[in-house]
């Protein structure tokens, strides 16, 4: 992940334009999206009219009215400001993306001949066109490689400068418009028309232009609108109660009570929280195609993780030499090392390393030994070395056993050879390999001149710290399932070592899909990541499908998130980000509602003081005057929005300590805190404004 | 406050707590359609009724069908009761020769009994014939209670079932609630009440010559049977005008205790039915604990306020607690306890005059009703009422565990929130808006007995009681006017059906959802934390709405009293 993309919350480059945006967002059409703030705007406008009326007719206490009206408008502006700041961070990133999307020329191919092309502007390309992209060219639009191999610089979208390989066929065939081919050439079939390419979508996403309210946000808005209505009833009935008591309450004071009671804090910050959540993912180099996907990430119950690359390091390593009876460790190690000297695969290299570390067998020069390397082929499933008339082979156990058999047959045909069939040894090799397989390893048999020497234990290396991550996930209530092509025995062993809850062995695209459906039928939400075309159905079926950026177009289309770094372990962080988004929303809703207690105690005694002075006993904060009490409450109500902008952008920290502990912690901070904080805040503001002589 | 008073309160709480499990277990079997102890008597009756009604216990209803059946049934009950009152003069069982009830009063009374409110703008012994009392009022006492239980059970099914469309069958639930739960308990209670000295007769009123030689008519009637269902079904409509303060309706301390327990019994047991049906009794106990916590706070405050008495009266040389409007055979503790129970539970029966309570003592019954009577509440109604608050509480705070809100594995989404908000919104709408209109209407204000905040409280209490379907009166207010008969009737309808329909809609929406299995990341809803959260949401969302109204009513009155002022 590139840290350069993260922007600090209090960056002047974002804050200053946000002030202007706060005013621009006073546009009623924009405000109507947010019921609470829309209502505040309406009553602010109403009180402004009343203020002007009083100015003309010369009403009393104009200074106080003026301050109330000002703070009402500030409440609206602060809400707009919060949203603008949240959007600002995305905008900054969209800017840098736009810069990379330069006008390109495309080499449109007419037929199969790559010499025969016409230069056209990139924007004129249609889906299905085939273009040639050569070294140095910018890929004109999203597409799929249909011929050739090339190294591509995708820094424009990933921020990662190391080039990646793109080739036809397989799982690395997708190319993104705006990235640059560094070497070789490829033929690309265009899959996205200009304006709807990946980068275009990215820009739209980070700018928040396509932001739709998520289901939970919609539900929350309903609740907030409902509470606003309840407080309309609570405040609109007060004048009549006052009339009964022979008193009168000015509209301005009713409005002040109303605005402080309705959940303005969460109403103001709700969309900022949502935007910031998406933004956190973007800065993490993950693109969520919808807010719904981010929300679903928080709800994930089951995580499907591919074994290779996610749970284990990509390559197996030799960890032990297991000779058969009558063969020393040293002898087996020596033979295995010789057979691997020219083997450039990670497995081969790890054998050389193990032989050196454990038995001090140093690397020898193949040339001086007159050795001839026999490479691995799919037919023989063995590799090895021939030198000085002897031959060493290492390979899959069944292949090696067959080789030995074959050699025996050859010798019975009369060829002079030392090869003898040794059934006990073969059985012993079989037993050792079974043991290794049971432990999750891969056995590699070694044979020298037809004589079975023993087995090398190749082991999947479980990534460091991954077990702790899974324990953490378990505490979060998330079940992990390892997906692997290995046989069940091996899979079980690795699953146990890595600490996953379950595994799917000998996985095929079909049983992967049916596993997801099964989990979903139980009411669970499933997250997975994948890159191949055959992952596409499962990615589409999963509630959170994270496609790797290196993957195929089909996979990228099927998932609802794209990981630009193509790092499957990120699923875990994606879940955390989803949870953080939901928690922040809940924390601020709770805080906002809990705030009401103090506001009642500030305003009610002040409101009725004229005709029920006894209610002064409810003024437990000891606020100086009725005016200062009302003003303090409304100022607190406006300032708390600004004070909580950093929290709503950063998000409430998620701790995997179990739901019960997390809830009690958050209830204490945001629930109880929400009751207490305004008592202190309003009192402090009261002291300040009475000292300044404002009320 | 006395040790004796506290002991009596604790005895009451203990008995209710002990009843929750056995009664809950029995009711669960009844509503799951399993065999029970009484099946051998009632199963044939039940089958017969279904055959007549053309339904079957296997026939399940979508929530809209369920709601339509319920509305139809209630409308029919309303019409029947209205006509019985209007024509009682021409109908039998009318030894006292009562004449037709005026239309607006008949409307008010019919709505009142259909909605399980039992607000009474009439004196029973001077207005209603035995036929109306038995075939009209008592029948509604049963079926309105059974309706409430049916809705609660339907809503519980919303949580306990998954991925289906139907929430049960209204006719079946209603029949079972009446036959297996209400009827047998009422039979036992009636016999006990008769044993304790309550009249149970169809004979005429009795004439008596007093010691001074004056002639007195003593009203009688089938009292015991009506009192049994009045309490058990949280109806509260008294046979006599004095309600449970009348010696024939509530002869002694034992009958008082039995009545109080029977008010709470079914409502409290429903929490256990809930727990059992969703497969975790602790879930039910958590809700019971929330109710208990809110209840005990109310009892302590009310008892304390009444026992402390009025300093203005103390200044006149009368020491001790506030005994005005209370029966000496119950005393302060049992009057305060009764007042809290009856308003917590939507019963509305009274054994003391609430208008004579101190300001704070009267504040508790008001708050109980304004919260929507979710502290045990009306049979069924209290339970579905508190579940609406559960939906809100879960929605507000549930996000704080980092998952979208879910309760018992059901996701709480836009539709549930919308319906819960609608239901909760209807209470301030009926209580505050109608009060706000009445307190500025000279005709309506003319009905109050006391000036100042107390008079305000009388009106507020009337609409609160009506909208909450409680039915208790603060007293003091002359309610039998055209204005109050109509508006109180409207408040009762709003408070009943604007809650029922959303509750059933929630049941219908939940029942179709999958159940997400609980995990370590799931919001725990069976512990003290949840009890605290739910209580907090109930008090802040439900209670604070009424803070301004309470401030200019009982609160200012109390503060004035402390300052030695009167109005």
TrEMBL record, chain A:
It is an enzyme of class 7 (translocase). Keywords: ATP-binding, Cell membrane, Ion transport, Magnesium, Membrane, Metal-binding, Nucleotide-binding, Phosphoprotein, Potassium, Potassium transport, Translocase, Transmembrane, Transmembrane helix, Transport. Mg(2+) binds at residues 531, 535. It catalyses: K(+)(out) + ATP + H2O = K(+)(in) + ADP + phosphate + H(+). Belongs to the cation transport ATPase (P-type) (TC 3.A.3) family. Type IA subfamily. Its main location: membrane. Pfam families: E1-E2_ATPase, Hydrolase. The chain crosses the membrane at residues 34-52, 64-82, 218-242, 248-273, 600-623, 629-647, 667-689. Its EC number is 7.2.2.6. It comes from the Bacteria. The active site is at residue 306. ATP binds at residues 343, 347, 376-383, 394. This is Potassium-transporting ATPase ATP-binding subunit. Part of the high-affinity ATP-driven potassium transport (or Kdp) system, which catalyzes the hydrolysis of ATP coupled with the electrogenic transport of potassium into the cytoplasm. This subunit is responsible for energy coupling to the transport system and for the release of the potassium ions to the cytoplasm. Residues 102-207 form the P-type ATPase A domain. The system is composed of three essential subunits: KdpA, KdpB and KdpC. It is a multi-pass membrane protein. PANTHER family: POTASSIUM-TRANSPORTING ATPASE ATP-BINDING SUBUNIT. The keyword Transmembrane applies. It is found in: Cell membrane; Membrane. One of its GO terms (cellular component) is plasma membrane. GO terms for molecular function: ATP binding; ATP hydrolysis activity; magnesium ion binding; P-type potassium transmembrane transporter activity.
From TrEMBL, chain B:
InterPro entries: KdpA. The chain crosses the membrane at residues 6-24, 65-84, 134-156, 177-196, 257-274, 286-308, 328-350, 357-376, 382-401, 421-441, 482-507, 528-551. It is found in: Cell membrane. GO terms for molecular function: P-type potassium transmembrane transporter activity; potassium ion binding. One of its GO terms (cellular component) is plasma membrane. It comes from the Bacteria. It is a multi-pass membrane protein. The keyword Transmembrane helix applies. Keywords: Cell membrane, Ion transport, Membrane, Potassium, Potassium transport, Transmembrane, Transmembrane helix, Transport. Part of the high-affinity ATP-driven potassium transport (or Kdp) system, which catalyzes the hydrolysis of ATP coupled with the electrogenic transport of potassium into the cytoplasm. This subunit binds the extracellular potassium ions and delivers the ions to the membrane domain of KdpB through an intramembrane tunnel. The system is composed of three essential subunits: KdpA, KdpB and KdpC. Belongs to the KdpA family. This is Potassium-transporting ATPase potassium-binding subunit. It comes from Rhizobium fredii. The lineage of its organism: Bacteria, Pseudomonadati, Pseudomonadota, Alphaproteobacteria, Hyphomicrobiales. The gene is kdpA.
């Amino acid at each position: 992940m590139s840290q350069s993309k993260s922007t600090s919350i209090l960056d002047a480059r974002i804050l200053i334009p946000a002030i202007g945006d706060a005013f621009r967002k006073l546009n009623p059409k924009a405000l109507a999206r947010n019921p609470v703030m829309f209502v505040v705007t309406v009553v602010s406008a109403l009180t402004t009219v009343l203020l002007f009326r009083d100015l003309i007719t010369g009403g009393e206490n104009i200074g106080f009215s003026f301050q109330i009206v000002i703070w009402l408008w500030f409440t609206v502006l602060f809400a707009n400001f919060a949203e603008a700041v949240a959007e600002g961070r995305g905008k900054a990133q969209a800017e840098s993306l736009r810069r990379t999307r330069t006008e390109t020329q495309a080499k449109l191919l007419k037929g199969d001949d790559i010499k025969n092309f016409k230069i056209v502007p990139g924007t004129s390309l249609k889906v299905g066109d085939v273009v040639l992209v050569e070294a140095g060219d910018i890929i004109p639009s999203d597409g799929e490689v249909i011929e050739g191999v090339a190294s591509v610089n995708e820094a424009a979208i990933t921020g990662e400068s190391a080039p990646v390989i793109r080739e036809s066929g397989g799982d690395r065939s997708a190319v993104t418009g705006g990235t640059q081919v560094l070497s070789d050439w490829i033929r690309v079939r265009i899959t996205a028309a200009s304006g709807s390419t990946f980068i275009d979508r990215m820009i739209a996403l980070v700018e928040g232009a396509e932001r739709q309210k998520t289901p939970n946000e919609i539900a929350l808005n309903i609740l907030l609108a409902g509470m606003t209505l309840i407080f309309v009833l609570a405040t609109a009935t007060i004048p009549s109660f006052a009339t009964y008591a022979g008193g009168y309450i000015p509209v301005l004071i009713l409005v002040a009570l109303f605005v402080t009671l309705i959940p303005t804090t969460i109403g103001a910050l709700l969309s900022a929280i949502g935007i910031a959540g998406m933004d956190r993912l973007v800065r993490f180099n993950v693109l969520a195609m919808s807010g719904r996907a981010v929300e679903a990430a928080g709800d994930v119950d089951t995580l499907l993780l591919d074994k290779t690359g996610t749970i284990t390091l990509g390559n197996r390593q030799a960890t032990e030499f297991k000779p058969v009876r009558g063969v020393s460790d040293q002898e087996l190690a020596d033979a295995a090392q010789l057979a691997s000297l020219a083997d450039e695969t990670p497995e081969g290299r790890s054998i050389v390393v193990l032989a050196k570390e454990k038995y001090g067998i140093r690397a020898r020069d193949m040339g001086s030994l007159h050795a001839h390397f026999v490479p691995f082929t799919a037919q023989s499933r063995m590799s090895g070395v021939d030198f000085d008339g002897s031959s060493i082979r290492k390979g899959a156990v069944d292949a090696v056993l067959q080789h030995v058999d074959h050699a025996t047959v050859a010798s019975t045909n009369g060829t002079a050879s030392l090869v003898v069939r040794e059934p006990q040894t073969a059985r012993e090799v079989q037993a050792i390999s079974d043991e290794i397989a049971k432990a999750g390893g891969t056995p590699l048999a070694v044979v020298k001149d037809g004589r079975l020497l023993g087995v090398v234990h190749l082991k999947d290396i479980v990534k460091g710290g991954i077990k702790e991550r899974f324990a953490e996930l378990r505490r979060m209530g998330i079940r992990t399932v390892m997906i692997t092509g290995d046989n069940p025995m091996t899979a079980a062993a690795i699953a146990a070592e890595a600490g996953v809850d379950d595994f799917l062995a000998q996985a095929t695209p079909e049983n992967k899909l049916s596993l997801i459906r099964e989990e979903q039928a139980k009411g669970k939400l499933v997250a997975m990541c994948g890159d191949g075309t055959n992952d596409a159905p499962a990615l589409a079926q999963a509630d959170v499908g994270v496609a790797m950026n290196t993957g195929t177009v089909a996979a990228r289309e099927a998932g609802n998130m794209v990981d630009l770094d193509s790092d499957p372990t990120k699923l875990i962080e994606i879940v955390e980000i989803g949870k953080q988004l939901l928690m922040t929303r809940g924390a601020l809703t709770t805080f906002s509602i809990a705030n009401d207690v103090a506001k009642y105690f500030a305003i009610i005694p002040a409101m009725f003081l004229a005709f029920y002075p006894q209610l002064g006993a409810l003024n437990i904060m000891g606020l100086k005057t009725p005016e200062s009490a009302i003003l303090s409450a409304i100022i607190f109500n406006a300032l708390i929005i600004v004070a909580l902008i950093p929290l709503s952008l950063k998000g409430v920290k998620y701790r995997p300590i179990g739901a019960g502990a997390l809830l009690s912690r958050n209830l204490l901070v945001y629930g109880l805190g929400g009751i207490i904080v305004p008592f202190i805040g309003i009192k402090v503001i009261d002291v300040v404004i009475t000292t300044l002589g404002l009320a | 406050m006395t040790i004796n008073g506290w002991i009596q309160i604790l005895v009451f709480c203990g008995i209710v707590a002990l009843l929750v499990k056995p009664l809950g277990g029995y009711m669960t079997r009844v509503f799951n359609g399993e065999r029970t102890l009484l099946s051998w008597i009632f199963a044939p009756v039940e089958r017969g009724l279904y055959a007549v009604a053309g339904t079957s216990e296997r026939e399940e209803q979508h929530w809209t069908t369920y709601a339509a059946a319920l509305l139809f049934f209630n409308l029919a009950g309303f019409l029947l009761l209205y006509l019985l009152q209007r024509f009682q003069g021409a109908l039998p069982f009318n030894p006292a020769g009562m004449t037709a009830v005026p239309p607006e009063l008949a409307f008010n009374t019919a709505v009142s009994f259909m909605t399980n409110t039992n607000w009474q703008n009439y004196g029973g012994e001077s207005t209603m014939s035995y036929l109306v009392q038995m075939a009209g009022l008592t029948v509604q006492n049963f079926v309105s209670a059974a309706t409430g239980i049916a809705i609660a059970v339907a809503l519980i099914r919303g949580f306990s079932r998954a991925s289906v469309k139907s929430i049960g069958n209204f006719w079946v639930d209603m029949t079972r609630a009446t036959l297996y739960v209400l009827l047998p308990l009422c039979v036992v209670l009636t016999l006990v009440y008769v044993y304790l000295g309550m009249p149970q007769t169809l004979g005429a009123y009795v004439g008596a010559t007093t010691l001074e030689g004056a002639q007195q008519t003593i009203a009688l009637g089938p009292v015991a049977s009506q009192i049994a269902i009045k309490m058990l079904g949280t109806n509260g409509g008294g046979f006599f005008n004095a309600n449970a303060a009348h010696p024939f309706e509530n002869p002694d301390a034992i009958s008082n205790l039995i009545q109080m327990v029977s008010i709470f019994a079914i409502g409290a047991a429903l929490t256990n039915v809930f727990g059992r049906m969703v497969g975790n009794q602790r879930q039910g106990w958590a809700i019971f604990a929330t109710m208990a916590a809110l209840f005990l706070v109310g009892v302590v405050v009310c008892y304390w306020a009444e026992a402390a008495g009025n300093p203005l009266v103390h200044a006149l040389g009368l020491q001790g607690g506030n005994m005005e409007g209370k029966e000496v055979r119950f005393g302060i503790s049992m009057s305060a306890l009764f007042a809290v129970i009856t308003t917590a539970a939507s019963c509305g029966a009274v054994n003391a005059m609430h208008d004579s309570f101190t300001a704070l003592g009267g504040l508790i019954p008001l708050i109980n009703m304004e919260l929507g009577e979710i502290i045990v509440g009306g049979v069924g109604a209290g339970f579905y009422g508190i579940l609406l608050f559960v939906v809100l509480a879960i929605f507000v705070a549930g996000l704080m565990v980092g998952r979208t809100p879910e309760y018992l594995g059901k996701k709480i989404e836009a539709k549930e929130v919308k319906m819960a908000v609608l239901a909760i919104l209807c209470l301030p709408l009926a209580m505050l808006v109608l009060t706000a209109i009445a307190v500025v209407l000279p005709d309506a204000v003319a009905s109050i007995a006391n000036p100042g905040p107390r008079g305000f409280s009388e009106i507020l209490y009337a609409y609160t009681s009506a909208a909450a379907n409680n039915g208790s009166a603060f007293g003091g207010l002359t309610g039998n006017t055209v204005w109050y008969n109509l508006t109180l009737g409207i408040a009762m309808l709003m408070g009943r059906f604007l809650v029922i329909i959303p509750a059933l809609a929630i049941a219908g929406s939940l029942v179709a959802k999958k159940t997400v299995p609980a995990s370590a990341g799931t919001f725990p809803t069976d512990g003290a934390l949840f009890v605290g959260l739910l209580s907090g949401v109930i008090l802040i969302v439900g209670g604070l709405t009424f803070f301004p109204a309470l401030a200019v009513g009982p609160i200012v009155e109390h503060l004035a009293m402390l300052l030695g002022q009167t109005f």
